[in-house]
Amino acid sequence: MSFLLLNSWKEEKDEAVKRRDFEALNEHLATKFTFPEITHDVKKELADFIASEFDQASSSYKCAQIRTVRFLSRDKSGVEVLFTEDLIELIIESAHLEKSSTEESYEVISETAKCLVNALYNSDKVRKVFEVKSVDLLLERISFLLNKIQNNTTLEKDEKFKYFSKISSEELQDLFFLDLRIAFIVTAHSLNVQKNWLNDVDNASVFLNTLLLSAKNLNNLTQKEKEWGNEALKILFNLFCHAKLFDLDFAQKCADECARIIKTSTVDPDFKQNCVNLLAVMPATLESLCPKIEGQPKSTKVYEDYDVEFADATLALFDERIDNLDKKDIELLGTFFTSLIYLCKNHKAARRYCRLKVIPPLHAKHVELPPDEGKEFRNKIIRIMRSDANCRELAAEFLFILCKRSVPRLIKYTGFGHAAGILANSGLLGAINEKKRDSDSEASDTEDYKEVEDLINPVTGYIEPHRENPLANMTEEQKEYEAMKLANAMSKLMEEGVFTPGTIGEDGRVRAVSHVNELVKNVNVKEELESDSDID
User: Fold this and answer.
1) Which of 226, 313, 318, 513 is the most buried (most CB within 10 A)?
2) How far apart are CA 440 and CA 455, in angstroms?
3) CA of 165: how far to CAs of 106, 177, 224, 343, in Å?
């Protein structure tokens, strides 16, 4: 695309010729997401040309023009140049999200709504204009369409939406989805919209009602219902994610619906994932999802007189997601950890049930391999702990909560090497030698585990294959010589800044040492030898 083509359009009087040129251009642009060959000046000139032609154009020509803008708005480079004030105004008006004197066809409304999805995602300029002029009308239209889809025909009289009378039911449903997409992007970028929509429960209820409509028949969801439900959940997530204060009754209604979806086995995992994401940003609602059972239990999952079906379903979904997510998507697991951590911190029965599922009593077979190897739930979470994912600390915190913040118990299930990070961050390295609590062995030691417990390397967390001690055949002089070589090598590496050894400070946290001798200054050989005894 070039100035030459634009100039030829300006001189061309036949709309059909220009429309065909735009359609040919769109075929070329459709599969691309960046357009380095199109200069900023050309984009600006194109925007001016479309703005000058649009009002007099036919619907098909308008669609071709807007489609070109939609494709070009995929590329952040030069997107602010493309969206001139006139073009932004034109697109918003054509989408009927600002008062317009022209009634556009469904095809134009739909195409401009699609264009707005890209424009709002990539252009700060478009977002600012849209927030001032269109967010209220967008919410009003979503509410209108929701009622329309629910067959509430009394709203036909609304003058603002009279153009819907010419649109089919299927087209209304498609436009409803596009409006939800726009609402998701707007709420993702604007704290003001998040706050204003959430603070008015009537506004926020539009999206809960969308979710309720979508999930009405969970055992037989249509593709459109899944799409509406997912968008509604993502919008609600945006509304709650930065909220300090909100209506707890409304939040609880959202949480109850999320729990119902998570507990339904036939629902798509991605749909459930969005439910977990929402629950993670309104944790105060979680405790009530595992209620005390009064009378005859309706749930199939009862533990200590509590209905733990929600906890069980969340863990099952979590386990499934760990297995099926690509490494690049592992951060999606963070909301599972956040939700489960809060639930287990505040609900004793839920914590005990989760512990039973995630870190059940150990058997001898469980310590034959390293803790991060295997197919057990515990193994999978420890693998996340040792990954470079941002949620690795949440994984460690979750296991620590299940262990009732007992350092010996955490080391027992993970090995000290895997637990060192959370212990260091929590200032608990000094507690690694604390005595076991009476409850640390409660229902967690089996007879066959006790038989092999003394063979487990506490650092690695499993029974390592027998290896010959490299010092076994050395004289004391040779051992001393090797020790000095090691100390000198470490000292040299420290001086060169290759690494910095640490020791445990008085606060239980790691601090850097200034000299290698600090690593051994408090070691008492006699005490060390005595501590190796099997006597507790």
Assistant:
1) 318
2) 19
3) 11, 18, 21, 48
Q: What is the pTM of this model?
A: 0.85
| Short-list 48, 47, 142, 66, CA closest to 97 | 142
Q: What are phi and psi of 45, to 5 degrees?
A: -65, -40
Q: Cα(114)–Cα(177) distance, rounded to whole angstroms?
A: 10
- Per 3-state DSSP, what percentage of the chain is helix, strand, and coil (rounded to 5)? 65, 5, 30
> Cα separations (Å) of 33 from 30, 72, 266?
8, 8, 36
Lowest average pLDDT, out of 188-197, 221-230, 474-483, 520-529, goes to 520-529
Place of tokens 């020791």: 503
Domains of the chain, by residue range, sit at 1-119, 134-255, 286-465, 482-531
Residues 507 and 297: their CA atoms lie apart, in Å, by: 48
Alpha helices in 160-295 (DSSP H): 169-189, 191-199, 201-214, 223-241, 248-262, 269-280
For 294-303, what is the mean pLDDT?
A: 80
DSSP-based three-state secondary structure for 292: strand
Whether residue 121 contacts residue 115, with contact meaning beta carbons closer than 8 Å, is answered with no
Q: In which region does residue 321 sit, left (phi positive, over 0), alpha (psi from -120 to 50) or beta (all else)?
A: alpha
Q: What is the rounded average pLDDT of the residues 66-87?
A: 94
How would you classify the pairing of strands 306-307 and 510-512? unpaired
Please state, in angstroms and rounded to a whole number, the distance separating the CA atoms of residues 251 and 230: 17
Contacts of 215 (CB under 8 A, 6+ apart): 221, 225, 229, 257, 260, 261
Tens of pLDDT, residue by residue over 101-160, are: 678 899 999 999 999 999 999 999 999 999 999 999 999 999 999 999 987 655 455 678
Phi, psi of 437 (to 5 degrees): -75, 160
Alpha-helical (H) ranges within 390-536 are 392-402, 407-414, 416-425, 447-452, 476-495, 525-531
Instruction: Name the residue with tokens 């602010």.
Output: 80
pLDDT in tens, 319-330: 999 998 887 888
Which tens digit of pLDDT belongs to each residue from 166-178? Answer: 889 999 999 999 9
Residues 6+ apart with CB under 8 A from 102: 55, 93, 94
Tokens encoding 394: 């949440």
H or E element at residue 65:
helix 59-72
SS3 for 512? Answer: strand
Q: Is there a contact between 368 and 462 (Cβ–Cβ < 8 Å)?
A: yes
Q: Residue with structure tokens 């070329």?
A: 28
Q: What is the DSSP string of 267-282?
A: S-HHHHHHHHHHHHT-
Unique residue bearing structure tokens 């008492």? 524
